[in-house]
Write a structure and sequence with these properties.
The structure holds two protein chains of two kinds.
Chain A: H1 2-24, H2 50-59
Chain B: H1 2-21, E1 30-44, E2 59-71, E3 76-89, E4 104-118, E5 124-130, E6 132-135, E7 138-150, E8 156-168, E9 198-213, E10 216-229, E11 237-239, E12 246-248, E13 254-268, E14 272-283, E15 288-295, E16 298-299, E17 304-315, E18 343-354, E19 358-359, E20 364-378, E21 383-397
Antiparallel strand pairs in B: 1-2, 1-21, 2-3, 3-4, 4-5, 4-6, 5-7, 6-7, 7-8, 8-9, 9-10, 10-13, 11-12, 13-14, 14-15, 15-17, 16-17, 17-18, 18-20, 19-20, 20-21
The chains are: A mainly alpha, B mainly beta.
């Protein structure tokens, strides 16, 4: 059952990525990047979220893996 | 040939005259970015793992941090990140080798230098980082390598990063009174529960960025994590269902994690941006998790942006988790740490970012000030407030001397 769920989600991601990569991508000229270059359009976590990410790492067993302070602290409570 | 020679001579003299007369001077710009982050965190709950899944989780953390990134030219970048966490906790008193008061203060120091270099005439950047993190019950040495490749058009980026952490969980670095040792709950110190004290973590983070059109971009973040060694926390208690047995938490010595994140950012209209994030997580301890986050930055003015957001996280329990007095003495592995329980968490908050990008003086610029508040709630009753303040400054040298104090840079 778990494996089936994993396969379904992986398949969903692959469909999403392949759809985006093959059909949706347009060539964007440098002068058309005004919106893309906006600070809030940046991909990945923003710097202000850094501490929030460390909280997730300590309070949720499913976090970790390079985001925030994934290691180097016990997060005692 | 004569014409060609005269033409070439003319060109040379013209270039010489241009160089002599022109105000244009090619210079390398050196940039130094300074980020100061102040965070405050407070939580309370009633399922502390230190007291076996019952008891207060009251905790305060003050966390000032700085990051300095110096780019002497467009190819090289040096960075230094460091900070301190000042932690006041009710249950940490139950860790100490010497009970002192109802609450106890602990500190964590960390420092991490890094260097990255863009290979000449390519769009590939290599990086390395190291450092340390020191706490009374924890010493960690991180080391990492990264490579990033951007397509010539800038519409696609692929990066890979390997981060390794070498941790030591012994107590006693800040005192001469006690030997360096694993610290167990005070009533269980007659037994040496673990013969090893090191933890190794290897995180392979990949990322794939793709511009889809002029208002939409997408990213994938596949990760793989391997942890080995002492993954139990030696001062976490477990009480068993026979009513009298008490032991130290015991977890397997190996853990694999497979998170996979996806992000889609869309510039909707002229003032509104939609930042959406989903993360799937699977590990070999039985946890499957889903995380969703939606953030909608709204540009109130060209310099002020307000960003409300919500986050939802749900996870199944690890096979080894049992609440207080529900673990079985026949089990090989057991814990009452609620971070490994089946839970939902909800978080909501607001960020305000003010980015005037004003010149403070001849070479110094005030880039941005961001304030963020978050309220966090876990389905087992734990709740928290998080407040972060980020100040961003920049030093640019030697060009841009045309910018006078008080004028807008862009």
């Amino acid at each position: 059952m778990r494996l089936r769920n994993l396969v379904r989600i992986a398949a969903g991601f692959l469909i999403l990525v392949s759809t985006g990569a093959t059909t949706g991508c347009a060539t964007v000229k440098p002068y058309q990047k005004a919106w893309l270059n906006d600070f809030n359009m940046r991909l990945g976590k923003t710097d202000i979220e850094k501490f929030d990410e460390s909280v997730h790492t300590y309070r949720e067993g499913a976090s970790g893996g390079g985001n925030g302070k994934a290691s180097g602290g016990c997060g005692c409570n | 040939m004569l014409v060609a020679a005269l033409h070439a001579t003319g060109q040379k003299s013209h270039t010489a005259a241009y160089n002599a007369d022109s105000l244009y001077k090619k210079q390398t710009i050196s940039r130094t970015q300074i980020q100061l982050l102040f965070a405050y965190y407070t939580q309370d709950g009633d399922h502390s793992a230190i007291t076996g899944g019952v008891g207060t989780e009251w905790l305060h953390v003050y966390s000032p941090e700085f990051t300095i990134t110096h780019q002497p030219d467009s190819n090289r970048a040096l960075s230094l990140n460091g900070g301190i966490d000042i932690i006041t906790s009710a249950s940490m008193n139950m860790i100490s080798l010497m009970r002192s008061s109802a609450s106890r203060v602990s500190d964590r120091f960390y420092l991490s230098p890094g260097y990255s270099y863009r290979l000449p005439k390519t769009h590939t950047r290599l990086g390395a980082n190291t450092g340390f993190s020191l706490e009374s019950t924890y010493l960690s040495f991180p080391a990492g390598l990264s490579v990033t490749h951007t397509s010539p058009s800038g519409s696609r980026e692929i990066s890979a990063s390997l981060q390794c952490y070498f941790d030591d969980l012994r107590f006693g670095r800040f005192t001469d009174t006690y030997p360096l040792t694993l610290v167990y709950p005070i009533e269980l110190r007659d037994t040496s529960w673990f013969s090893f004290y090191r933890r190794y973590s290897y995180n392979l983070d990949l990322s794939f960025y793709q511009v889809i059109n002029s208002k939409l971009q997408f990213a994938l973040f596949p990760e793989a994590v391997l942890q080995k060694g002492l993954l139990s926390t030696p001062y976490h208690r477990v009480y068993f269902d026979d009513g009298h047995t008490e032991r130290v938490e015991n977890l397997p010595t190996e853990r694999w994690k497979f998170p996979l994140g996806a992000q889609l950012n869309y510039f909707a209209g002229r003032r509104v941006i939609i930042r959406s994030y989903y993360r799937y997580y699977h590990d070999n301890w039985g946890i499957i998790a889903h995380t969703f986050q939606l953030e909608v930055p709204v540009k109130i003015t060209p310099t002020l942006t307000l960003s409300p957001y919500v986050r939802f996280h749900t996870q199944t329990a690890a096979w080894y988790f049992h609440p207080y007095k529900q673990s079985n003495t026949r089990d090989k592995f057991y814990t009452s740490n609620y971070e490994l329980s089946a839970l939902n968490t909800y978080k909501t908050g607001l960020s305000a970012r003010y980015a005037p990008q004003n010149a403070l003086s001849h070479h110094y610029f005030f880039d941005a000030l961001t304030l963020r508040y978050s309220y966090y709630k876990r389905s087992d009753g734990l709740y928290a407030h998080i407040l972060s303040l980020l100040l961003e400054l920049e030093h640019v040298c030697p060009s841009r001397t045309f910018v006078s104090p008080g004028t807008k840079r862009r």
